[in-house]
Amino acid sequence: MSDLVLYDLRDGVATITLSRPDAGNAIDEAFGLAFGAVVDRLAAQVGVRAVLLTGSGKKFCVGGNIDEMRNTADLTALMQAGIPRLHAAMARLAELPCPIITAVNGPVGGGGIGLALCGDIVLAAQSMKLRGGYSAIGLSPDLGASWQLARRAGAAQAKRILFLNESVGADECLALGLVDAVYPDERLAEEARTLAARLATGATASFGRIKQLVDGAVTRSLQEQLALEANHMIASADSHDGREGVRAFVEKRSPAFRGR
Questions:
Q1: CATH number assigned to the domain with residue range 5-200, chosen from the 4 options 3.90.1680.10, 3.20.70.20, 2.60.40.10, 3.90.226.10
Q2: To the nearest whole number, what is the mean pLDDT of the chain?
Q3: Burial (CB count within 10 angstroms: exposed 0-12, middle 13-18, buried 19+), residue 149
């Protein structure tokens, strides 16, 4: 396992840490291989009930490694080799049936936007700044950056961010709905760990069904959504956690969820 992307599983929380702080956790071929391997490991891991994705150092992820792009003899071939691998990893991450929290510990740009905003809940440090960057060098978004920006802030704001490449501070990101909470830098890691631990003791299967319902809602008709809600409610009622949750509510105690 590469030390460019670290992986740790404790008490049901899988933590992924981008670990190349001297390069702003930049995305390049080596990163793509390391990130893909970690996501594969995570997807196959038994006992994961929440995921926490963060960066090391003062920047979350600056985006693509410009030096690698500049020094390659064939930029097209570089993109053709690297982008599908990264996108496959992002798709696998999105399909995980458990909550994903991202803790954006500093500035983020380019493909780092896709990583930063892929969380079901996105927490940010006060020092976080977001900048599109793609069009400034004649490129277009990847790693789901355009989808995440449009989903969270709307198409108009997404285009403004990606056209103008202006720095968007943490408070404005919060106002736009790009992040869900902003904390002082020194508190972000602890707040993220606390939230991850809380979710890891929750009804994991219920969270997974909620993700499926909410993430796909805009692509379904009301009738389709009602049918899926009915299926999921029946499956939840037939689960350990569903029965335990109802009993605990009636008995006025905290439920002992097992994640199934």
A1: 3.90.226.10
A2: 96
A3: buried
Options 1.10.12, 2.60.40, 3.90.320, 1.10.150; which CATH number does 204-250 get? Answer: 1.10.12
- For residue 5, the tally of other CB atoms under 10 A from its CB is 23
CA end-to-end span of the chain = 30
The domain spans of the chain are: 5-200, 204-250
Q: What is the mean pLDDT of residues 81-106?
A: 96
H or E segment and range at residue 198 = helix 185-200
Q: Where are the alpha helices (DSSP H) in 26-181?
A: 29-44, 66-71, 75-94, 112-116, 145-153, 155-164, 170-176
Task: Give the predicted TM-score (pTM) of the model.
Answer: 0.94
Measured CA to CA, the distance from residue 211 to residue 96 in angstroms comes to: 9
For tokens 């704001």, the residue is 157
Instruction: Give the model's pLDDT for residue 2.
Output: 73
pLDDT in tens, 107-135: 999 999 999 999 999 999 999 999 999 99
